[in-house]
Design goal:
Keywords: Signal
Number of domains: 2
Distance between the termini: 47 Å
Structural class: alpha/beta
CATH superfamily of the largest domain: Response regulator
Strand order of the largest sheet: 2-1-3-4-5-11-10
Number of strands: 12
CATH topology of the largest domain: Rossmann fold
Largest sheet: 7 strands, mixed
CATH class of the largest domain: Alpha Beta
Protein name: Sugar ABC transporter substrate-binding protein
Helix content: 25-40%
Domain Periplasmic binding protein: 35-298
Oligomer: single chain
CATH architecture of the largest domain: 3-Layer(aba) Sandwich
Order of helices and strands: EHEHEHEEHEHEHEHHEHEEEHHH
Mean pLDDT: 92
Low-confidence stretches: 1-29
Number of helices: 12
InterPro entries: Bact_Solute-Bind_Prot2, Peripla_BP_I, SBP_2_dom
Main location: other
């Protein structure tokens, strides 16, 4: 794996004393708490466009003097290890960690525990070690919603029993992927034929496109009646493969994350649905917990999730399935995107039809 200096990717906010907290052994001698956020990659647009700015804004609203450290690992587990170790060396008081490889970061959490630095697993459940909190969505439910949406679309089209589907699951290093897959199989098994199924490294749209091309070659273009894609980026890759193969009409395809391009594809009919995750709620809840931990507080969690070693106090948020007729009352209503962001160029007529202005 490639090594890079942490300093190149860390963004630190200005620090002014006065927020209080339990800061420890800071090289600068500063008593203001330091909160470090680590995100796994940037191919999925949500992380830089939403998770990071929403998290940072909420921390600053709750603790104006808190210092913020930020790093994105670019899907490189070794790079993320260096980033976390550097933050601990700089005196971070709380780690909020969305792991590149959630099954391989127990040693990093252990380093934090040895320094009495609490850890929040953000979006992806870290396994094989105990820590303070897990904040994410009900991932099995996400997969169930995707599977049900695809099944409904196939049933409506009368093709559920007339061909095969392709499943494009997420990265095998992300435990959320297994949950999505479990949920989808609960709905689809025994009701449709799964012609090909892939676990897509790095959630890569390019690799998803290659997998879809392989499936088309193996199964035949006319055999594939639907695609279960675990997120929007991979859905875009699958759509590119199908267009390249000359599909006159694209079969229904699922997604997740409500990426802007996906929302536009849903309106124009290229993609059937997406899972809308209220990232604001996830980021802000994590920020609230991080500030509380930095101040020596530990709020009660509504549930717990087993990670193979411990039952982790957890906040699991509800996903929302969104088809074209629900975009206005969910994504636009919540301000996730403005109508002017969505309704551009060839999407304008579809927006008008959907009542989005």
């Amino acid at each position: 794996m490639r090594a890079r200096w942490f300093v190149a990717v860390v963004v630190a906010a200005a620090v002014v004393s006065g927020c209080g907290g339990n800061a420890k052994d800071k090289p600068t001698g500063d008593d203001a708490p330091t909160i470090a956020l680590f995100l796994p990659e940037s191919k999925t647009t949500r992380y830089e466009a939403f998770d990071r700015p929403l998290f940072e804004a909420k921390v600053k609203a709750l603790c104006a003097d808190c210092k913020l450290l930020y790093a994105n690992a670019d899907q490189d587990a070794a790079k993320q290890q260096q980033q976390v170790e550097a933050a601990l060396a700089q005196g971070a008081d709380v780690l909020v960690l969305d792991a590149v490889d959630a099954s391989a970061v127990a040693s990093l959490v252990n380093q934090a525990k040895q320094k009495k630095v609490p850890v929040i697993a953000y979006d992806r459940l870290i396994s094989e070690i105990s820590y303070e909190y897990y904040v994410s969505f009900n991932n099995v439910r996400v997969g169930e919603m995707q599977g049900q949406a695809l099944l409904d679309a196939l049933t409506k089209a009368g093709t559920a029993d007339k061909g095969k589907i392709v499943m494009l699951n997420g990265a095998p290093t992300d435990p959320s992927s297994a949950d999505y897959k479990t949920g989808a199989h609960k709905v689809l098994d025994g009701k449709v034929q799964i012609g090909r199924e892939f676990d897509t490294p790095d959630w890569s749209p390019d690799k998803a496109q290659q997998e879809m091309e392989q499936a088309i070659t193996a199964l035949g273009r006319d055999t594939i009646v639907g695609v279960l894609s675990a997120n929007d980026g991979m859905a875009g890759g699958a759509i590119a493969a199908m267009k390249r193969a000359g599909y006159p009409t694209l079969p229904p395809i699922t997604g997740q994350d409500a990426e802007l391009a996906a929302v536009q594809r849903i309106l124009t009919g290229e993609q059937y649905m997406t899972i809308y995750l209220d990232i604001r709620q996830e980021a802000e809840k994590s920020a609230e917990l991080a500030v509380a931990l930095a101040k020596g507080e530990k709020p009660a969690a509504p549930t717990k999730v087993a990670n193979g070693t411990a039952d982790i106090p957890a906040f699991l948020l509800d996903p929302i399935a969104v088809t074209a007729d629900r975009i206005k009352d969910t994504i636009v209503k919540d301000g996730f995107y403005k109508a002017s962001d969505i309704c551009t160029g060839p999407v304008v007529p579809a927006c008008t039809k959907a009542g989005i202005q």
